[in-house]
Write a sequence for this structure.
């Protein structure tokens, strides 16, 4: 960058100086030339007047002039020339300035020498007797003047080059320095070019975003590790008891009725394992957003009715009554996920209920939103546990959860299902009285 700025300023300055020098020389030369023309013109005027009055004798009496003065007859023969032998001069009738003067009274022309180093300015005036008086002067061309001044010009050029190089180097360094001095650890706290403020703000925003992403990634990593540890633990417990029962039974020494009990336990443990594995698969699918199921219009009211049907026997075992309230409310989503969400909420409503309790499922549709509330009359969740129950494997009472067949993943599935559908969850619960979980779907999002 330093080099680029240096080259740019150096070349621009050099070009500007060269252009200025050419313009100044051109203007000076033009002024100088115009001045000479005016002088020759006025001299020719005076001499013509004198010749009109005194005749050729005036010309013969002229001494000491560096101008060439020629008198030409109306037929073009030269009758006087102060710098040449008139007999050696050919007819001048065809000379440009003479022809012009014959026609218009005065004429002018410029002729260059063969080497272009000199030029001659001719000015001709027609006298009253039709003869022509011509005054001419030699002039150096710009080229000759420049060539004559070549040495000082080269010297000045070299000096200008050196000064320009030094200045350009300083300028480029002073431009780059504030950029090199930028503190990128704290991009917005720099006193630098105003033009850099948007860039520094962008860097700062990017930094913030990256550190947020890093934080999120390490949080996820931590959660993943915790999850793996929890899963291993959850799998190990039933596997250990299955292995224990099987070990006792493998020798065939267990009495028949005890073996029946053991088989029942093995069956229950395997059922627990199956629902745990199913929940883990469902949850990881949701988390990875790896769901190939198609979205469709799903009526939460109808779906709730189906789920109540499936949970009938579980509710009956506890003598819990299930009531569906409200009315039809359609959302655009994945039926399987919505099913799991409502199923888990109702299942919890039954599992953590008291004998003869109730579970109300209320479905509503208002203001472009669909609401689903599952309210029970169960044991409730204390305020201290409420913020954590949606975490994976978090249980308020571990032994109770296991006893009722919980995997600790039900509410995590509800939470991720809600995130997947852009829905919000609210939980209200009073210990000993009951719990109500409401999922609010934004229907605008799904164009329904
Ligand atoms: P689990 O499989 O153990 O039911 P969940 O993720 O569904 O796991 O719930 C997490 C914990 O939250 C449960 O273990 C329980 O302690 C508490 N919980 C969930 N729903 C209810 C409810 N309706 N009433 C009381 N406690 C509940």
């Amino acid at each position: 960058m330093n080099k680029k700025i240096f080259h740019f300023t150096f070349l621009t300055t050099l070009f500007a100086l060269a252009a200025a020098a050419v313009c100044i020389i051109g203007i000076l030369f033009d002024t100088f030339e115009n001045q000479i023309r005016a002088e020759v013109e006025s001299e020719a005027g005076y001499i013509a007047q004198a010749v009109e009055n005194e005749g050729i004798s005036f010309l013969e009496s002229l001494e000491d002039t560096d101008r060439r003065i020629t008198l030409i007859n109306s037929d073009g023969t030269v009758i006087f020339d102060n710098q040449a032998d008139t007999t050696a001069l050919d007819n001048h009738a065809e000379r440009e300035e003479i022809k012009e003067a014959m026609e218009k009274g005065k004429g002018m022309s410029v002729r260059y020498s063969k080497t272009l180093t000199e030029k001659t300015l001719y000015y001709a005036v027609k006298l009253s007797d039709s003869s022509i008086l011509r005054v001419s002067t030699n002039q150096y061309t710009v080229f000759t003047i420049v060539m004559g001044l070549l040495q000082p010009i080269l010297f000045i050029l070299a000096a200008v080059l050196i000064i320009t190089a030094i200045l350009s180097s300083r300028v480029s360094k002073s431009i780059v320095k504030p950029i090199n001095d930028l503190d990128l650890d704290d991009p917005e706290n720099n006193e630098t070019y105003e033009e850099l403020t948007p860039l520094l703000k962008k860097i700062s925003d990017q930094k913030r975003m990256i550190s947020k992403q890093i934080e999120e990634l390490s949080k996820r990593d931590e959660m993943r590790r915790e999850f793996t540890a929890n899963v291993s633990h959850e799998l190990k417990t039933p596997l250990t008891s299955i292995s224990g029962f099987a070990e006792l039974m493998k020798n065939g020494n267990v009495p028949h009725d005890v073996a029946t009990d053991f088989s029942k336990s093995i069956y229950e443990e395997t059922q627990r394992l199956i629902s745990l594995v199913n929940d883990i698969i469902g949850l990881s699918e949701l988390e990875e957003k790896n769901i190939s199921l198609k979205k469709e219009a799903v009526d939460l009211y109808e779906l709730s009715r189906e789920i109540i049907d499936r949970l009938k026997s579980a509710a009956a075992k506890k003598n819990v009554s299930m009531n569906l309230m409200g009315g039809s409310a359609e959302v655009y989503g994945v039926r399987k996920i919505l099913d799991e969400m409502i199923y888990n909420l109702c299942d919890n409503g039954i599992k953590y209920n008291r004998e003869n309790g109730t579970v109300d499922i209320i479905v509503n549709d208002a203001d472009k939103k669909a609401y689903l509330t599952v309210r029970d009359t169960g044991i409730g969740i204390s305020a201290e546990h409420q913020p954590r129950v949606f975490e994976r494997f978090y249980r308020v009472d571990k032994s109770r959860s296991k006893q009722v067949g919980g995997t600790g993943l039900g509410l995590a599935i509800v939470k991720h299902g809600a995130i997947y559908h852009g829905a919000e969850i609210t939980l209200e619960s009073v210990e000993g009285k009951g719990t109500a979980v409401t999922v609010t779907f934004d229907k605008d999002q799904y164009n329904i």
User: Anything to note?
Assistant: The mean pLDDT is 89. The longest strand covers residues 118-126. Residues 344, 348-349, 352, 376, 378-381, 389, 394-397, 401, 406-412, 435 surround adenosine-5'-diphosphate (CB under 6 Å).
